[in-house]
Amino acid sequence: MTKILAPYNGHRSVRPYLEAVRSAGGDPIAAETRGAIHLDGYTGLLLTGGVDVNPRLYGEVAAPETEDADDERDQVELDLIHQAIERDLPVLAICRGQQILNVCHGGTLIQHLPSSSHHVRRTPGNPGLPAHEVEVAPDTLLAAVVSEPKLQVNSRHHQAVARLGEHLIITARDTEDGVIEGLERPDRTFMLAVQWHPENQVSGFPEQMALFRAFVKAASFYTGR
């Protein structure tokens, strides 16, 4: 059984992620980010959306638009990422997950996008409606998983990757403003990040379901390290 750890703060917001993992054949386990969490017994790590990462973690002072930080969640997730890197445990990072993955690798964030309105679509009752298009870089894990050169994605973010973290590569960008929308770490078996919310698109967009299926498949082959 593939046991996927999904750390969270706010139970209602984690539900779509858990349902997407279950639909892909995985066994998601939600764990609130209060106190240390260990990856023993897990075969995958799912990093989800949430509040902004504390800018102090990448050497900056918070901008007026930056949300109040959840320092405990930041530290718990950073520790989990380090554990996953050491174990070569499969990781799928979504929205905030991509951002903290980049920070963990020494990267920085744009605290407030000049084109932030372009990257936010909040549609009551249908959070999966596309907000914009992204172009997928060829010859990447993401390209192999989604099998499409361009994707119509939903978004709910006002921050994004600025300076790329060490060992990471860019796998997707917004076709209009060039904002980084996907990352991966090629020297790990499966460490994939996207800025959009595929958990809200799995029912209507097969390429988004493919992200979860590939993640769960990688987790099913994990034997520990």
Features:
alpha/beta; 5 helices; globular; 27% helix; 225 residues; 9-stranded mixed beta sheet; two-stranded antiparallel sheet
What is Rg?
A: 16 Å
What characteristic shape results from the CA principal axes?
Answer: globular
Q: Would you report the number of β strands?
A: 11
Helix content: 25-40%
N-to-C order of helices and strands: EHEEHEHEEHEEEEEH
Number of helices: 5
Largest sheet geometry: 9 strands, mixed
Amount of beta strand: 15-25%
Quick take:
The protein is an alpha/beta fold and 225 residues long.
Report on the architecture of this protein.
The protein has 225 residues and is an alpha/beta fold. It has helices at 11-23, 71-87, 96-104, 141-146, 206-220, and strands at 3-8, 27-32, 44-47, 91-94, 109-110, 132-136, 150-153, 160-161, 169-174, 180-184, 191-194. The strands form 2 sheets. Strands 2-1-3-4-11-10-9-6-7 form a 9-stranded mixed sheet, sandwiched between helices. The chain has a two-stranded antiparallel sheet with strand order 5-8. Helix 2 (71-87) links the parallel strand 3 (44-47) and strand 4 (91-94). It is globular and about 45 Å long. The two termini are 17 Å apart. The relative contact order is 0.19.
Please render the helix and strand layout as text.
Elements: E1 3-8, H1 11-23, E2 27-32, E3 44-47, H2 71-87, E4 91-94, H3 96-104, E5 109-110, E6 132-136, H4 141-146, E7 150-153, E8 160-161, E9 169-174, E10 180-184, E11 191-194, H5 206-220
Parallel strand pairs: 1-2, 1-3, 3-4, 4-11
Antiparallel strand pairs: 5-8, 6-7, 6-9, 9-10, 10-11
